[in-house]
Amino acid sequence: MVSIRPFNDNDNQRMLEIERLCPQGDEKCAMGVDKKDIIARYGLYDNWIVLVAEEDRKIAGWIGLTVKTIPEEKEKYAYITEVMVNPAFQRAGIATRLIKEAEKKATEMEAGHAYCYIYEPNKASRFLFEKMGYSEMRGIKFPGISTYKKLDVLRNIQ
Ligand SMILES: CC(C)(COP(=O)(O)OP(=O)(O)OC[C@H]1O[C@@H](n2cnc3c(N)ncnc32)[C@H](O)[C@@H]1OP(=O)(O)O)[C@@H](O)C(=O)NCCC(=O)NCCS
Fold this sequence. Notes:
Elements: E1 2-6, H1 12-20, E2 49-55, E3 58-68, E4 76-85, H2 94-108, E5 111-115, H3 123-131, H4 153-157
Parallel strand pairs: 4-5
Antiparallel strand pairs: 1-2, 2-3, 3-4
The protein binds coenzyme A (COA).
Residues 22, 24, 82-85, 90-96, 122-125, 127-128, 131 line the site of coenzyme A.
């Protein structure tokens, strides 16, 4: 039986371990720096909530969100920062439960809509959010190019 509760500092180590088990799309996708603090990113936000799903007192997954307000915008909105489920507990509806719970919290905080970013090759995440009723707004392309020049090694050595 899955239960959902707020994050507490004792969860940190286990969540770091679970995050390392959860590649998000393909093996070439960087997992970021070697984190020590699973909630470090949340320091950026004015408010945040991390909800932890437990099964048999083991951490099965979690979801994070923050509710934002931009003065020119008419309504508050929720940014779902991440949803992560331990591979041992996947495909059992836990992410679905977490997203529903996060949306409930966002509504209580008067958010009018929710959004999140999905790494394009991450099919599990795309299918999950589609199933939860999220629709694609736009693709984001990083403005990077790689450049190339063939060097004449022998001539440079002489
Ligand atoms: C994406 C993720 C959170 C899904 O968690 P989950 O608890 O297994 O998801 P659910 O069981 O609630 O699945 C709900 C639906 O999502 C879709 N889905 C989930 N995992 C999928 C997969 N591996 N492949 C295809 N579709 C998938 C399915 O439509 C599924 O419904 P179904 O089981 O009836 O077919 C999990 O795979 C995960 O933690 N991945 C690594 C971290 C990550 O990529 N997080 C998202 C970006 S922050």
